[in-house]
Amino acid sequence: MANLPILRFEEKIVETVEKNPVVVIIGETGSGKSTQLSQMLYKRGYTNSGVIAVTQPRRVAAVSVARRVAQELGVQLGEEVGFAIRFEDRTSEKTRIKYLTDGVLLRESLSNPELDQYSVIILDEAHERSLNTDILLGLMKRLIKLRASNLKVLITSATLDGEKVSRFFSSCPILTVPGKLFPVEILYSSERPKNYIESSLKTAIDIHVREPEGDVLIFMTGQDDIEKLVSKLEEKILGLAKGSCMDAIILPLHGSLPPEMQVRVFHPALPDCRRFIVATNIAETSLTVDGVVYVVDSGYVKQRQYNPSTGMYSLDVVPISKVQANQRAGRAGRTCPGKCYRLYPSMVYHDDFLDATVPEIQRSSLAGSVLYLKSLDLPDIDILKFNFLDPPSSESLEDALKQLYLIDAIDDNGSITSVGRTMAELPLEPSLSRTLLEANECGCLSQALTVAAMLSAETTLIAGRSKSTEKKRKHPPSDLPDGSGWGDHIQLLQIYEHWDQTDYSVDWCKDNNLQVRGMMFVKDVRKQLSQIMQKVAKGSLDVRTSERWKESRQAYRKLRNALSVGYASQLAERMIRHNGYRTLGFKSQLVQVHPSSVLRTDEEGMLPNYVVYHELIATSRPFMRNVCAVEMSWVMPILKKLEMININKLSGGSSQSEERSEGENSILLKKDVNTGGPPEDRD
Ligand code: ADP
């Protein structure tokens, strides 16, 4: 810690912060921005008038950095230093430095628009350009005007175009912390490999056999690739003749690892033992692993991309940007000169890679964000001119407005409704929030809370979530009551209810290939959602939220109905001739039921005529994931509403494209049109 580059600039940083409400700090990854800035200001008494908030786009980073800072200050995590991520709050009255995801800070601003509990807000990792950080940047502009005398905002980044952000904040000062990077030799492959896992394996083994000591960091695209490469590496290294090279330890690193596995990368290596860290892009800038001398860069990243014209998400493996490639290489030069093996030719780097990664705001569904901004409804904020560093496309804004209209969150003039306001208070995507409110109305809130919690934690439920285990969910625990034939949501409900009946048995989870940790998380999320519902639904809460399991066809039917209301833009109709479905949303397209679904695609007659789906994903072809049967009589009124949509009216009288006028970065949203909201599972 003592020799972190940022510490040499402490005086300058503190002085600049003292004199300016907003400061941009650019510093190489690992220079100490995330761990030290908060401590510097803490030492100078900035927490006498409020808490220091430090936002992170990723949950893992919020937890890991908070843990580190607590350790450095010698305090218990959750006391002076704490963290808050969605569904997990480890802070207390004593907390003075709070690490939190950008999504959680956005949510806090709903109940406290001036965020006056904070004396300092540090937007960390701004270069990641997460959707939520981009929205926060816009909000900070307003807060600075309102609280100029008692709020400091710091924006930190490893690579961000500092000038652009500085201009955004009326030319605020930019401080650059030069890193002390050692030279990194870049070695290019002569061609792109056919299989980057095999090629990474070969390169890693070559390094192990030929190169002197130093850890190896290998960038893969996701958990599946990481698991494959880890097991291949283990096998190969075991096969090397004993004594021919030093010992090795192989550590995976990705966002879904249990925390105790994540922190293993921070433990110092044993002498004469090389560490192989096989990581996602989380190790690019979010987490700094010390001791790395060799980097193997596949040149790819897995990116979630939303297509507003089809409503479809795709999780594509795409080439990284030049900025990412340079970040990856930089990881090799932190402690001594290093080497970066790029598994692609230099021409690919120069000609094919984009200069910078496309910001998330330009590749996400904006329904949640639009609803969020609409619900802020601040008298002094000019929502008509909400400023984005880079504006989203008018197509995705229109898509968001249509979605919100279909689920009654905004009326046909684009104004937020009372249903929309309540929805915005729930920490869930709009469709799921709407489902809960509907379920509350029709008396199946208990079941809907379970499904919402199961869906929120789905990725952590199945032990070893690989393609083959995902299929296993198709075969539900054998002793489930009949009813899962209605679809995946009902099956998720039944799994939980059954577990609840066993009094949360650990053995039952193990017998059914479910992760105990994941199921406990669902239980906790369900409890929290239930408490939030108590608050937001005020007097009108369905009292049966804690009702215990009772198999009921009636409740399943009500739940399916509530889902059709919440997911009104995600309905599909059976097309027998195509052995699939036609989506009934804004743009009709042919889709299939995902093979992981409980709805048996292999048994023709079993498929329902109408379904609601949780998500449309494009892999080899368009698939609906998490599908459930609905009834025609529920679908018809929605189709009518769909026909009536007048986008001009929804967007406040003129089309979005005409509304862009205030300089290149501003987008005009009518007062009663709004934008924004925390998507997916970042927070
Ligand atoms: P930056 O934000 O500039 O990327 P950080 O403040 O995250 O830098 O990291 C500074 C140093 O602290 C690095 O050497 C990093 O390895 C170390 N560090 C960060 N988090 C942890 C942790 N949870 N455990 C141990 N070391 C950590």
Automatic annotation (TrEMBL):
Catalytic activity entry: ATP + H2O = ADP + phosphate + H(+)
Top class in the EC scheme: hydrolase
Keywords: ATP-binding, Helicase, Hydrolase, mRNA processing, mRNA splicing, Nucleotide-binding, Spliceosome
GO molecular function, one term: hydrolase activity
Biased composition (Basic and acidic residues): 657-683
Segments forming domain Helicase C-terminal: 200-377
Helicase ATP-binding domain: residues covered: 14-178
Matches recorded under Pfam families: DEAD, HA2_C, Helicase_C, OB_NTP_bind, WHD_HA2
InterPro entries tied to this protein: AAA+_ATPase (IPR003593), DEAD-box_helicase_OB_fold (IPR011709), DEAD/DEAH_box_helicase_dom (IPR011545), DNA/RNA_helicase_DEAH_CS (IPR002464), HA2_WH (IPR048333), Helicase-assoc_dom (IPR007502), Helicase_ATP-bd (IPR014001), Helicase_C-like (IPR001650)
SUPFAM superfamilies per the UniProt record, alphabetical: P-loop containing nucleoside triphosphate hydrolases
Keyword Cytoplasm among UniProt keywords: no
Protein name, per record: RNA helicase
Provenance organism: Ilex paraguariensis (yerba mate)
